[in-house]
Specification:
Layout (H helix, E strand, L loop, with lengths): L1 E7 L2 E8 L1 H6 L18 E4 L5 E2 L4 E7 L6 E4 L2 E3 L6 E7 L5 E10 L2 E11 L10 E7 L2 E6 L4 E7 L4 E5 L5 E3 L1 E2 L8 H6 L14 E6 L3 H4 L3 E2 L3 E5 L4 E6 L2 E6 L2 E6 L4 E5 L12 E5 L6 E6 L3 E8 L2 E7 L2 E6 L3 E3 L9 E3 L3 E5 L2 E6 L7 E5 L3 E7 L1 E3 L13 E10 L2 E8 L5 E7 L2 E7 L14 E6 L14 H18 L3 E4 L9 H10 L4 E8 L7 H4 L2 E5 L5 H15 L3 E6 L12 E8 L3 H6 L3 H22 L8
Parallel strand pairs: 4-10, 12-22, 30-35, 40-41, 40-42, 42-45, 43-44
Antiparallel strand pairs: 1-2, 3-5, 5-8, 6-7, 6-9, 9-10, 11-13, 12-26, 13-17, 14-15, 14-20, 16-17, 18-19, 19-22, 20-21, 23-26, 23-29, 24-25, 26-27, 27-28, 31-32, 32-39, 33-34, 34-37, 36-37, 38-39, 43-45
Length: 636
């Protein structure tokens, strides 16, 4: 049974004899009522700020205050509900224009007040004549790529137009209209529950062309012994429609490499200043999601660059895109043959097991968590392992196997006798070293006793603000302090990543958790939506994680938050967020309430509302630890 202290209205009340299942059955009370506010009529928009860019389709939201909870309000001619404190949230249609005024009219009896608010649509192009969207030119900047490999160019321009790129040599590259439907914005895909928003039309305003290897001769490129560089900064895009013609420069520099891929080493801190996580994030395509976590010192080959992203050739059939700032020429890696893997060694370390993989050079690797443990894939490598040394006092890894899955790729399968708590890797000389963390010893009757937990009050900098001006950073800190007090009362050691309203960067928050060897990391947030996503149908409670070993914690906390707050259950979701990226411990990020919804912002101003949020986090952590204390594996 769980015994812990719960703070309600500032009074410490001891709850005893409540099991996790009985807590889950308790219905949530309504959020605290919104206190009434009365004053002069003054309709105003808090978001979006006047004249700011709004990236939305045919509709978007606005919110603000009107000064009096008894007022009647219309926004863009539509009646809008006003909360008792004068806050309001509206969902309005957007006229087909780049800039427009929204009229707000507030009435209370014989009194009335009117205001106008300007909105500017991001990326909007007035579709008249031979128009072209300058922001849509892709790619721009520096491009370095293998000789002969095609480069796709795209642009938005007037439907039915003739589009061509004239190079300085006079060669014209013709574009064709792309028949692919308009893409659905990430905001809509990730946060909108209305499937009708996924409907797409083919507008015919997207044009594509390929800059191919043949242009090396026809385009007047000047090859050199190592590479050919074409500067087309003065290349001109010509869009013609009827008698109207638009010409704009396309800022692009293309370098064609004629030599083999460059040998490179990855280092996110080349000046040795500290303050980095000593990892390079790899993605399957430029700007994609996290796929690889490559430790500092990894050596491989680079064969392409687009803007600030470099393509690594991990093996013959595997690539990864990484930040160009992390990629440096290798001082010595003349042998192009795959690295050779020696016999792996397992040893016991404090809190887990270490795997050392001998290599002739440190190669890129990926980690995939499985139902039984982990699979580690080593790229550009061949196995010469003859044995595995398990160690006399090592029991966490129950089995280690490996096989050559391709001519230059080896996969090691690590089976564990308990659920994985976390993992991390680093390069030591030429060896690749992995640490596997086993679950801590947990007292089932006092699961929080002795636990070391980092609570992160999300923001500042940045963060969302609500209609009456309550900002997320303030609300997050108040909830985080309550969570800390509850966990400490139950025996945990708790560290906050910030104590006040000072700005703290994302990496320093993670670095703090690493420095205290945290067993759990929970980041407290409150939500907002992207422009163009309806808050009336898409607000609620959600919890984010990144790595599979964090999913059980995310589900346990989400269940208790929904039960305590009584809002729509948006579920758990994997997210590429800095505070859930660490691999050494379960890490989650909670989004309890929505700052933009008047009733939810108001609840976050009250002790009761903050307490419900905090109790949900504490109860969820407790339930997760209780399950983790049981023998065997914790189901995801």
């Amino acid at each position: 049974m769980t015994i812990f202290k719960r703070l309600i209205g500032g009074v410490s009340v001891l709850l005893a004899g409540l099991t996790t299942s009985s807590l889950a059955q308790r219905p949530a009370a309504p959020l605290p009522p919104v206190p009434p506010v009365h004053g002069p009529l003054k309709p105003q928009v808090v978001y979006p700020a006047a004249g700011s860019l709004v990236d939305a389709g045919d509709s978007t939201f606005l919110f603000g205050t009107v000064g009096d909870g008894d007022a009647l309000l219309t926004v863009a001619g539509q009646p809008v509900a006003v909360a008792a404190n004068g806050a309001w949230l509206a969902w309005i249609a957007i006229p087909p224009d780049s800039s427009f005024l929204v009229r707000l009219v507030a009435r209370r009896g014989a009194d009335s007040a009117t205001s106008l608010h300007r909105i500017v649509r991001a990326g909007w192009v007035r579709e008249t004549g031979a128009w072209v969207d300058r922001a849509s030119l892709t790619p721009t900047g520096e491009v370095w790529m293998p000789n002969g490999e095609p480069l796709a160019l795209t642009v938005r321009a007037a439907p039915g137009a003739t589009v061509r790129l004239v190079l300085p040599s006079g060669v014209a590259l013709r574009f064709a209209a792309d028949s692919i439907p308009d893409p659905v914005s990430e905001g809509v895909r990730n946060f909108d529950r209305d499937d009708r928003k996924l409907a797409r039309a083919v507008r015919g305003d997207r044009y594509v062309a390929t800059l191919g290897g043949a242009l090396n001769a026809q385009g007047g490129l000047e090859p050199s012994p190592s590479r050919a560089r074409t500067k087309i900064r003065t290349a001109v895009l010509v869009v013609a429609l009827g008698r109207d013609t638009t010409r704009i420069p396309w800022p692009l520099t293309v370098a064609r490499a004629t030599s083999p891929p460059r040998a490179v080493v990855l280092d996110d801190d080349p000046r040795h200043l500290g303050g980095t996580d000593r990892l390079t994030i790899g993605r399957a395509y430029p700007g994609g999601t996290y796929t690889w976590f490559l430790p500092q010192g990894t050596r491989t080959f680079a064969d392409m660059r687009i803007g600030d992203q470099v393509r690594l050739r991990l093996s013959r059939d595997a690539i990864a895109w990484v930040p160009a700032a992390d990629v440096h020429r290798a001082s010595a890696m003349d042998d192009p043959r795959p690295a050779i893997i020696g016999s792996p060694v397992l040893t016991t370390i404090d809190g887990g097991t270490q795997l050392r993989i001998p290599l002739t050079r440190p190669v890129p690797a990926s980690v995939e968590e499985t139902a039984d443990g982990l699979d580690i894939t080593l790229y550009d490598a061949v196995s010469n392992a003859n044995w595995t040394r398990y160690g006399a006092d090592q029991h966490f890894v129950s089995a280690l196997g490996w096989r050559q899955v391709a001519e230059d790729r080896v996969r090691l399968s690590v089976s564990l006798d308990r659920a994985l708590w976390g993992w991390r890797s680093h390069v030591d000389g030429t060896d690749l070293v992995y640490d596997f963390r086993e679950p801590p010893h947990i007292d089932t009757s006092h699961p929080l006793a002795g636990r070391r937990i980092v609570i992160d009050p999300g923001h500042p900098p940045e963060g969302a603000c609500g209609p009456t001006g309550l900002c997320e950073a303030e609300a997050n800190l108040a909830v985080a302090r309550m969570v800390r007090d509850q966990l400490v009362a139950a025996g945990a050691t708790v560290i906050l990543t910030r104590q006040g309203m000072e700005d703290v960067g994302l990496w320093p928050r993670v670095a703090l958790a690493d420095s205290v060897d945290a067993e759990l990391l929970v980041s407290i947030h409150n939500n907002a939506l992207p422009d163009g996503v309806n808050p009336f149908t898409n607000s609620g409670t959600s919890t984010f994680f990144n790595h599979p070993h964090s999913l059980p914690l995310a589900r346990a906390v989400q269940e208790r938050l929904v039960a305590n707050l009584g809002l729509r259950d948006l579920g758990v979701a994997r997210g590429d967020l800095a505070l859930v990226r660490p691999t050494w411990y379960p890490a989650i990020l909670t989004e309890g309430l929505f700052m933009m919804v008047p009733e939810q912002e108001s609840a976050l101003r009250t002790v009761d509302g903050r307490q419900r949020y905090a109790a949900g986090v504490t109860e969820g952590i407790t339930a997760f630890l209780q399950r983790a204390a049981r023998p065997g594996r914790t189901p995801p």
